[in-house]
Amino acid sequence: MNAPQQHPPAVRTTCPYCGVGCGVLAKPDGMGGAAIEGDPQHPANFGRLCSKGSALSETLGLSTRLLHPMQRHGDTLARVTWDAALDQVASGFKQIIERDGPDAVAFYLSGQLLTEDYYVANKLMKGFIGSANVDTNSRLCMASSVAGHRRAFGGDVVPGCYADLDEADLIVLTGSNAAWCHPILFQRIVANRRARGARIVVIDPRRTATCEDADLFLPIAPGMDTVLFSGLLTHLVDSSAIDADFVAGNTSGFAETLARAREIAPALDAIAERTELPAQHIAAFYKWFAETEKTVTCYSQGVNQSAQGTDKVNAIINCHLATGRIGRPGMGPFSLTGQPNAMGGREVGGLANQLAAHMGFLPDDIDRVGRFWNATAMAKQEGLKAVPLFDAIARGKVKALWVMGTNPAVSLPRAGAVREALRKLELFVLSEVVASNDTVACGPHVLLPATAWGEKDGTVTNSERRISRQRRFLPAPSEARPDWWMVTEVARRMGFAQAFPYRSAADIFREHAALSGFENDGARAFDISDLATLSDEAFDALDPVQWPRSRARLFDDGHFVTPDRKGRFVPPEPAALADKVCDAFPLRLNTGRVRDQWHTMTRTGLSPRLGGHCREPFVIVHPRDADAAGLIDAGYARVTTAHGACVLKVAVSDQQRPGSLFAPIHWSDATAAHARIGELVTDATDPWSGQPESKATPAAIAPVTYRFHGLVLADTPPAFEAGELFTRIALKGGSGALFATDASPETWPAQARKWIGADAGLAEYADLAGSSYRAARLDHDRLTGCVAIGPEPADTFWDLLTTLMAADGLTAADRRALLSGARDDATADLGPLVCACFAVRRATIGDFLAGNATGTVEAIGRALKAGTNCGSCLPELKRIVAHVAAAETV
Q1: Looking at the structure, do residues 27 and 76 belong to the same domain, yes or no?
Q2: Which string of DSSP letters, residue by residue, matches 548-599?
């Protein structure tokens, strides 16, 4: 008998998306893939995963991977050996440093890196090259929280833990669409509301999915957060709701901060006028906050991504310091981190204004880190933050750059200018997972293949200060290597071999842990030095561990990490947006994320399931603004700012704030035409954090029309002509695209043949006079490619054609439907994906509710499973149920 096939055991690792830090069980299938489940033992998620985490198995293929070191020769990249590539990087950096000094070189890192990658890169740049020009894309999402924490607490510390969300009686979510961006935590909040009656307040300029479970929604005017929270501080004082003893004994700066708050928010009617909120709703929020001891205030990108983001953070913290609601169960300010290892990067000094182990550029800290590292060229001052860094590249001041694991040609403000800057570099090094993206297109001189999520080994730290192991469960393909290994090899070639002896991630972690306790008498909250002696085996087996190791919450004893051990009240500046609207740009552009995509889609864009929720890049417009601009729902519009323009599909919705637009950040030139939102965003930054204002760029909008619309499904990604609008969408075993064009119908047959082939098996339906065309390529009974073009939007055929494309064979009815467009119930358009976890579409839910007069969200879950996994679709399910109920009562 043949022995049963043995599969490798499940590996406990960590999700590579947001800062919740969910535990994952990965079960390799022995063929390069893996089954993915939530880890029920991980304290961040207890087995639950969001839609993105649940679809991780669809992103593990090698079709888009960079697998070999590449070197530029003229306009082309050619494969080279690792030795050749690393020698060029090391010699290039050395030559530029010798000629122009250490500040002529820089690193730009990513919250997707592991802590060990971050540590080695910072050590090389800040300790041995002698510059602090090492920054990270965390500058774009969490830097204002970092600056606010350091000003108030003396260190970059989140005081609370996730358990506080279970125990709070009031949870304030400000600038956070947690239902979509942190869904596992949001479902804990909703569970608390359901079980304990906790109230939820949502503060956001637009009505997001998070608002569906709110007891109070405050649609605040953009940029007016400090007005609202300054008013809250004065209300707490005037209603005797502050903890006077705590303020007197454990804080400083209260009198000055209160005086500033009274200037900013002198009275309720003035607060209402500036925030554009109803006075009675503000009063209700203030009353709830004053009367509810167990209050947690969660804040994220809507607060951070602002030219006054740090002041907003401190205005929130001021209210918690005034009431003494910090460091105790069920209360405190809580920063929801955006990336999986933004926190770990901050622990090792990943930002240009930090040193490792939560130290800064004070003389004692510089000396301490330099002695620990035996540094030969310790940086003495802060480096360039992200936006000024790329400005310095454009001016020729920075001549060499190493980008690791991020896509700045898409994600940075004024992305077009960033592209131009990258092309000016004397030496541009890029370590990447994918062979092609917008930054790769900017012409790196050296392209280094990095290991991807399933191949990486090391640690990450989540939003509640919990360190988790990210474990390798797939072998590194071909010549891919860890980022820490690349940096170590370059350091050795630059002459620093003795300081970079690392053979494994465990070696680096032990040194990182030892530094955290070096000459640390409690002045720094971050101390994991008891982990510095872990053996390799103990590191491999390390369970999720929270710091400080002695307790779950910080500042519970009223002692902070400032020199006098007191928390600092910080007076914010008067609220004002960086740029004013004008006749040319009368609207405000707000940017952010959607539920099922992540950053620039290099990972999530590979998943057919995740592509079903929001198929095309879009802009949400209030009906009033749509009417004024002549826009129609599902049409197209050009969004323009002083920095660039995009063409996006229009979604008209009264959930959007009048006078503002919302567009997601995810699409790039690799996935769509004219949809790179970073191109439009202002480069105005916060003076303390250096974080860009990504939520309020002055903008204009105008309609764009196309004569024809189409879709193409093919084995390989189709190429489009200049001027055509397209969006690429992942398909199982192929590539799909929706497009709009003004090309003459006479050109369509030839174009179809380029896309899907002109060999035997091509069938066509052509009514070119009537502007209707379809073509299909059949391999025996299987559909292997198809094209549909006509005057109507083609997305209504998407489900029909993708269903047929995935079928093992076509029936006679399928063949008729393929060219005629006539659809029966089995191949009807099912509408957008609602539940990505279980692939439940809008039409399926509608059919269920039509047959169930008392249909509820719970009933949908029992019948279809929708909403029963991560819960991120629950707000949408509630809206669908309410819409159906309202229609039935009319």
Answers
A1: no
A2: STT-SSSSTTS--SSTTS-EE--PPPPP--SS---SSS-EEEEEE--TT--T
Query: For the stretch 345-363, what's the b/e string if a residue is b when 16 or more beta carbons lie within 10 angstroms of its beta carbon?
Result: bbbbbbbbbbbbbbbbbee
| Residues 509, 497: Cα–Cα separation, whole Å | 18
Same domain, 307 and 163: yes
Query: Is the same domain home to 436 and 530?
Result: yes
Task: Supply the CATH number for residue 852's domain.
Answer: 1.10.10.1100
What are the DSSP E strand ranges found in 204-340? 216-218, 251-252, 295-299, 332-335
State how many domains the chain has: 6
Q: What is the dihedral of CA 365, 367, 373, 375, to 10 degrees?
A: 130
The answer to whether residues 272 and 282 touch, using CB atoms and an 8 Å cutoff, is yes
| Spatial contact of 569 and 406, defined as CB atoms under 8 Å apart | no
Lowest-pLDDT range of 90-99, 622-631, 708-717, 871-880 = 871-880
- Considering the domain architecture, whether residues 278 and 402 belong to the same structural domain is answered as no
Do you find a cis peptide bond into 548, omega within 30 degrees of 0? yes
- CA-nearest of 806, 718, 792, 810 to 757 is 718
For residues 318 and 233, state if they share a domain.
Answer: yes
Give me the phi and psi of 208, to 5 degrees please: -100, 180
Secondary structure letter of residue 129 according to DSSP: I
pLDDT in tens, 504-513: 999 999 999 9
Question: Does residue 827 register a pLDDT over 80?
Answer: no
Establish if 559 belongs to a structural domain: no
Report yes or no: 123 and 309 within 8 Å, Cβ to Cβ: no
- Rounded Cα distance between 539 and 545, Å, is 12
Q: Tell which residue, 619, 613, 679, 614, has the closest CA to residue 649.
A: 619
797 contacts 711 by C-beta, under 8 angstroms:
yes
Contact partners, residue 758, CB within 8 Å, separation at least 6: none
Structural domain containing residue 620 = 587-704
Distance between CA atoms of residues 340 and 279, nearest Å = 39
**CA angle 765–767–771, rounded 5-degree value:** 120
Contact call for residues 211 and 178 (beta carbons, < 8 A): no
Are residues 175 and 284 located together in one domain of the fold?
A: yes
Contacts (Cβ under 8 Å, ≥6 apart) of 781: 808, 809, 810
Note whether 621 and 702 are within 8 A (CB).
no
CATH number assigned to the domain comprising residue 161: 3.40.228.10
pLDDT at position 830, please?
Answer: 64
**Residues 161, 305 within the same domain:** yes
* Residues 886, 316: Cα–Cα separation, whole Å: 38
Is 342 part of a structural domain of the chain? no
Instruction: Kindly report the number of other CB atoms within 10 A of residue 244's CB atom.
Output: 12
> Closest Cα partner for 872 from 835, 833, 830, 840?
835
Report if residue 253 sits inside a domain: yes
98 phi and psi, to 5 degrees? -65, -35
What CATH number is attached to the domain comprising 446?
Answer: 3.40.50.740
Instruction: Determine phi and psi for 774, rounding to 5 degrees.
Output: -140, 145
In a domain, 124, yes or no: yes
Do 652 and 729 lie in one domain? The reply is no
Contacts of 476 (CB under 8 A, 6+ apart): 451, 455
The strand pairing partners of 24, in sequence order, are: 13, 38
Mean pLDDT of 344-365: 96
Whole-angstrom distance, CA of residue 593 vs CA of residue 663:
8
Q: Which of 666, 687, 704 is the last residue of a domain?
A: 704
Select from 423, 480, 422 the least CA-distant residue to 448.
Answer: 480
Cβ-contact 261, 233 below 8 angstroms: yes
Containing H/E element for 255? helix 254-264
Query: Are the beta carbons of 379 and 126 closer than 8 angstroms?
Result: yes
Q: What is the pTM of this model?
A: 0.95
Residue 826 pLDDT:
45
DSSP 8-state assignment for residue 481: B
The amino acid occupying position 533 is T
Tens-place pLDDT, residues 530-563: 999 999 999 999 999 999 988 889 999 999 999 9
